[in-house]
Each structure stands twice: as structure tokens, then as C-alpha cells.
């Protein structure tokens, strides 16, 4: 008999009165994909008109949560778009398996594809940053007919065939050796905007009141494929085959101040047919978390991109 996955849920009062985040929670139950019959509750927000011509799907990365997009959501809604922002399992208001071994790259993909399958959001524009791209691009390539266009910023879809940056390897080592794991401070450290308002730092910490809530964020850096024999390498190569035949629009919006993903835009621009001739943008003055630094600017760029490619 398969042991039932141990799962914790962040208390709701941790999310009260967060600055810039007035949104009502939405929840979806999915199978935990561990063979035990356990379920995981995934949280998302769903703003803007439900009959909008376009839904924008925004997927966060490590170690943040949907709060990262608070500067972008109002800009999209003001333009008449529907905006959906999920929290990955282990993050935000989503359920959190307590053991690092509960998390694998492929399990994240299964979880989020199961979540997506339960919703009809209409035609979607995808935006992903950091692990939001690593997981989100697998969602897009598994469901290409559901997406109209792709926007990527400070992310990738690694197969392990290229060595990662030194900055990433240092981050991966830190994630497994550091005794301190202050998520709000880590987000702040990776922004160009410093210091962040203490209330904003606290909001990034809100989903993670105890160490037991942090297993997903702790293990995430170790799940990135860094060698060609990584367990996920072949699946990501298959996803790249889909992207290499992707003729719908793809836009890169990488920042100029992120050592972890520096130059990653060249791979998308060089390999994806739909990236050819697009008005790719370098976000000046943005750090790794460019949504925190330049969120409204990126959303405005995306609104123009959607309008031009509709």
C-alpha cells in the first residue's frame, strides 16, 4: 500500500490585507499523482471578464507565488483581458506536500496539466518566468491548441545539454546547504528594486509560516536539469520539438539584470519560428524578478503584443 502523501495548508489569515492583493481565492482539487489517492488543492485567482476574447495565464517561479504578478493583473484587466494566476503546489495558497521527495519536475507538470484540464479559459496567452517557464512551457506544449501566443521572461526549458550559468549553480548549492531560508528576503535580493517595502517582503513570506511549508521551494533548484541524463531531459527535448514547430507568436521580455538567465532569450529567438520578426524587448532596470521591478511595463508591452497579433 502506498503511503498517503503528507500535505499542509497555509492558514487563510496569513493572506489577509496583503498590499496590492485584494483577490478572491479559487480552488481546484487534483490527484496527488503518488498512487495513494490523495488530492492536492491548487489555488488561483481569476480576474477580468469571463467572456473576454483572451485569457492571460501567468505562472510564477521559485521561491515566489502569484503575488509576484500584482503589478500586472490590473493592467491586463483594464485592457479588457481575463487574467488567471495559479499558485504551484508547494507555494502560495496551494497545498504543500511536506517532503522534498514528494516533488519532481514531472510531477509538477502532471499537477498543473491536471489543473488546466479542469478549466475552460478560452484562448490563452501564456507568460512564465523562472520555474513558471519550466513548468508552464510544458503545459503549453502539451496543450498547444489552447494557447494563442507565448511570452517568456527570465526563464528557459533546459534539457541539460547546455551547462547552466555559474550563478544558477551557486543558487542550487545554496538551496541545499543554507540553514536559513527566508523567502521574502531572497525575492528582495533578486530584485533590482531595493529595498522592498517590508510589508511586501512579508507578503512573499506569508505562505510559508514554518519550515514544513517550505519543502517545495527548497527542492525546486535541484530539479532543474543540469546534465543530459537528467530524468526530465528527454521530456523537455520532446517539448522543444513542439516549440521548434511553433508558428504562433512568441515574444521574449528578458531583463538586463538577471545573471541566472542571462542570454536565455537567444535560444527562443533562434529556435522558435513564431519568434521571428517579433518586437522582442529587453526590460531595462529589471532583476531576476522582473515582474516585481517592472511589472506594469511588461503588462503594457504584452497588451500591445496581444493587440498586434490578434
Structural write-up:
The chain is α/β, with parallel strands linked by helices. It has one domain: Rossmann fold, CATH 3.40.50. It contains ten helices and nine strands. It has helices at residues 73-78, 105-117, 131-142, 166-177, 183-189, 198-205, 215-219, 233-243, 265-271, 290-308, and strands at residues 7-8, 26-31, 39-47, 55-59, 82-86, 96-97, 124-128, 147-152, 250-252. β7, α3 (131-142) and β8 form a beta-alpha-beta unit. α5 (183-189) packs across α6 (198-205). It is globular, with a radius of gyration of 18 Å.
Defining traits:
310 residues, alpha/beta, Rossmann fold, 7-stranded mixed beta sheet, two-stranded antiparallel sheet, 10 helices, 9 strands, 32% helix, globular
Short description:
The protein has 310 residues and is an alpha/beta fold.
Question: What is the C-level CATH assignment?
Answer: Alpha Beta
CATH topology: Rossmann fold
Please state the average pLDDT score: 96
Q: Provide the domain count.
A: 1
Structural class: alpha/beta
The number of helical elements comes to 10
- Describe the largest sheet: 7 strands, mixed
Low-confidence stretches: none
The name of the CATH superfamily reads Alpha/Beta hydrolase fold, catalytic domain
Major beta sheet, strand line-up = 2-3-5-4-7-8-9
Corresponding CATH architecture: 3-Layer(aba) Sandwich
- Measured between the Cα atoms of the first and last residue, the distance is 51 Å
Number of strands: 9
Percent of residues in helical segments?
Answer: 25-40%
Principal-axis shape equals globular
Amino acid at each position: 500500500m502506498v503511503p498517503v502523501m503528507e500535505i499542509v495548508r497555509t492558514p487563510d489569515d496569513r493572506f489577509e490585507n496583503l498590499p496590492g492583493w485584494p483577490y478572491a481565492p479559487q480552488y481546484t482539487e487534483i490527484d496527488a499523482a503518488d498512487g495513494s489517492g490523495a488530492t492536492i488543492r491548487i489555488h488561483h485567482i481569476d480576474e477580468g471578464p469571463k467572456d473576454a476574447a483572451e485569457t492571460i495565464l501567468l505562472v510564477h517561479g521559485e521561491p515566489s507565488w502569484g503575488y509576484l504578478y500584482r503589478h500586472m493583473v490590473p493592467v491586463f484587466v483594464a485592457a479588457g483581458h481575463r487574467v488567471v494566476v495559479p499558485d504551484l503546489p508547494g507555494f502560495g495558497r496551494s497545498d504543500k506536500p511536506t517532503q522534498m521527495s514528494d516533488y519532481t519536475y514531472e510531477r509538477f507538470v502532471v499537477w498543473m496539466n491536471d489543473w488546466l484540464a479542469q478549466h475552460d479559459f478560452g484562448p490563452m496567452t501564456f507568460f512564465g518566468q523562472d520555474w513558471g517557464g519550466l513548468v508552464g512551457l510544458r503545459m503549453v506544449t502539451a496543450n498547444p491548441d489552447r494557447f494563442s501566443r507565448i511570452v517568456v521572461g527570465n526563464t528557459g526549458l533546459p534539457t541539460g545539454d547546455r551547462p547552466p550559468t555559474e550563478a544558477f549553480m551557486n543558487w542550487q548549492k545554496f538551496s541545499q546547504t543554507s540553514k536559513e531560508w527566508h523567502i521574502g528576503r531572497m525575492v528582495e535580493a533578486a530584485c533590482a528594486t531595493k529595498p522592498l517595502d517590508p510589508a511586501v517582503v512579508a507578503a512573499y513570506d506569508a505562505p510559508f509560516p514554518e519550515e514544513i511549508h517550505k519543502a517545495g521551494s527548497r527542492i525546486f533548484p535541484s530539479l532543474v536539469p543540469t546534465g543530459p541524463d537528467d530524468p526530465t531531459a528527454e521530456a523537455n527535448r520532446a517539448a522543444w520539438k513542439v516549440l521548434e514547430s511553433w508558428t504562433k507568436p512568441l515574444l521574449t521580455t528578458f531583463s538586463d539584470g538577471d545573471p541566472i538567465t542571462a542570454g536565455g532569450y537567444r535560444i527562443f529567438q533562434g529556435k522558435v519560428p513564431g519568434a521571428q520578426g517579433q518586437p522582442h524587448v529587453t526590460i531595462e532596470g529589471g532583476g531576476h524578478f522582473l515582474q516585481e521591478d517592472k511589472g506594469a511595463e511588461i503588462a503594457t508591452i504584452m497588451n500591445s503584443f496581444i493587440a498586434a497579433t490578434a
